[in-house]
Q: What sequence folds into this?
């Protein structure tokens, strides 16, 4: 086993791509928004933004797309499309509810550390009926520095009153893995749109296909 669940004090989840199945929606909305403004965006470019907060995304896209890239208009259009799509239904990733139920039974506290802003993050988690599971929800609005900076994960550990090294972080993005590893957490990557690179394998204790596999490491054989 790559980790010993009973030695851990908390589990901290990323949101998009780990808890909710939103990354594929985000990718299409981002590419459509850029194209509508006359700045076609490739999937390769969009994937570089996965896991980043808006301010960091703006810096990256201006570097790639040019300083004239209308980021504010792009981001507004993108957020409006996503808000409409996720208003009535927020799709949950496979294994989420089962893992959260088991962690609750084991009395292992959980938190969220997301690059999404406060309003959207709480809406999505509430709509998916996931909020009650978490003792802390850290959004981009709660920290000075977004991922890949470790502050979101350090803040989550602080709010849970546990040491970072005693936390397991679950991430789907490269930037998220860098943030969790930088915080000193044991990190598992559960890939969504991004594949696990050699860098990711070096920064994680395991790469797992879905949260069902993560859950099995917490189950005590009968």
A:
């Amino acid at each position: 086993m790559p980790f010993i669940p009973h030695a851990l004090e908390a589990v901290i989840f990323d949101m998009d791509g780990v808890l909710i199945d939103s990354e594929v929606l985000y990718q299409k909305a981002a590419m459509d928004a850029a194209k509508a403004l006359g700045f076609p965006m490739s999937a390769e470019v969009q994937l570089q933004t996965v896991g980043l907060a808006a301010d960091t995304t703006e810096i990256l896209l201006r570097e790639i797309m040019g300083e004239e890239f209308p980021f504010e208009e792009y981001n507004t259009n993108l957020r409006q499309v996503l808000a409409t799509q996720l208003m009535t239904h927020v799709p949950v990733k496979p294994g989420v509810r089962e893992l959260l139920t088991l962690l609750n039974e084991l009395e292992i506290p959980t938190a969220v550390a997301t690059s999404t802003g406060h309003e959207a993050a709480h809406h999505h988690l509430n709509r998916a009926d996931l909020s009650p599971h978490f003792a802390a929800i850290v959004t981009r609005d709660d920290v000075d520095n977004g991922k890949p900076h470790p502050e979101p994960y350090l803040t989550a550990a602080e709010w849970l009153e546990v040491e970072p090294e005693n936390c397991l972080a679950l991430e789907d993005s490269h930037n998220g893995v860098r943030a969790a590893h930088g915080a000193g957490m044991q990190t598992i990557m559960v890939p969504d749109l991004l594949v696990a690179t050699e860098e990711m394998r070096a920064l994680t204790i395991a790469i797992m296909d879905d949260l069902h596999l993560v859950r099995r490491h917490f189950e005590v054989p009968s």
Observations:
- The first strand starts at residue 10 and ends at 13.
- The chain has ten helices and six strands.
- The radius of gyration is 17 Å.
